[in-house]
Amino acid sequence: MGGNFFGLNVVKHLGANGLYSTQRINNNPYMNFGQGQLERDTFEYNSNSLGRYTSEASLAQRLKTNPKIREILRQNGMKAELNMENLRTLLAGHAKDTQKIADGIYDHLPVALKYEVNQKSLSDACYLHDVGKALIPDEILNKPARLTPEEEKIMHTHSELSYELLKGTDINPKTLDLIKYHHQNPLGSGYPQAKPDFNADVTLQILSAADKYSALTEKRSYKEPLLPEKALGIMYKDVKEGKIHPFVFKALVAHVRAQSPMPQAV
C-alpha cells in the first residue's frame, strides 16, 4: 500500500496500531484521538545556537546587501527599518511556542511518517520563520483591530522577507524553504505563490500547524487567546478543506491533550 496525498508520501501502512492511507478522519474532530504523554524532547533544541542569524548587526548587514529585500519594501511602501524589540518578543514567545508544539506533533506521529521529517530543519525553521516581521511596520504588526486588505498584503510579505533575510547565511536550503513557505499548504492556496511542482511535505505541514495553533492560542494585540478546543475546531476546518493532513492534525490533538486534557466533543 502506498501513495501521495495531502503532500505526504505514505509507502506502507503505518504499523499494527497506526493509520492507513485510506483511513478517513472521523467527522468528530476529537473522537478516538489518543492521549499519549510526552516523555522526551525530540529536538533537544538550543535556540541560542541560532542567535547569530537574528542579531541586529547580522540582520542589518543582510538588509543592506540584499536588493530583493529592498525591492519588496519599496513595492509595499515600507521603510528599511528593523524593529528589534518586536523581533525579540516574537523569538522569546511565539517562536519557542511553535517549536514546542511542532516537537509534540512529531512525537505523536505514526512511526513511518517520522522517518519523513527533517527534525533539524523543522526545529530551526520554527524558531526563525517570523524573522521578517522585524521589517513589518509596528502599526500593522501590532494593530489592535482587523487589518485592511492593503495591510494584510503587507503582513503577508513577512514570510518572504524572513527567507530573504536568512538566505545569505549558511542555513541549509530545506530550512530556508520551510521558512519561506510556512503559510503554504497542499492546495497551494497560501502565500507566497509556489511553483507548480511545490510539495507541502510532512515537515512543512507540521510547521504550519504548529504556527497556526500557537497564533490562535496566544494573546495578540487584536484578540484574546482561544481555548485549545476552540482553536482545534478552527483548524479542523483546514483538515476538511485539504490544507492539513489528518495524520498531522491527529498528532496535534494528541499533543494538546497530553499537555492539558480536554473534554471529549459530543
Description:
This protein is mainly α and 266 residues long. It has a single domain (3-259), classed as Hypothetical protein af1432, CATH 1.10.3210. It has helices at residues 51-54, 56-65, 67-75, 84-107, 111-114, 119-128, 138-141, 149-155, 158-166, 173-180, 202-217, 228-241, 246-259; strands spanning 3-5, 8-10. Strands 1-2 form a two-stranded antiparallel sheet. A hairpin with a 2-residue loop joins strand 1 (3-5) and strand 2. The two termini are 33 Å apart. Mean pLDDT is 85; it is low at 10-47.
CATH architecture: Orthogonal Bundle
Helical proportion? 40-55%
Terminal CA distance reads: 33 Å
CATH class label:
Mainly Alpha
| Structural class determined from secondary elements | mainly alpha
How many extended strands? 2
Q: In the CATH hierarchy, what is the superfamily?
A: Hypothetical protein af1432
Q: What name is given to the CATH topology? A: Hypothetical protein af1432
Q: Nearest-angstrom radius of gyration?
A: 18 Å
Query: In what range is the share of β-strand residues?
Result: under 5%
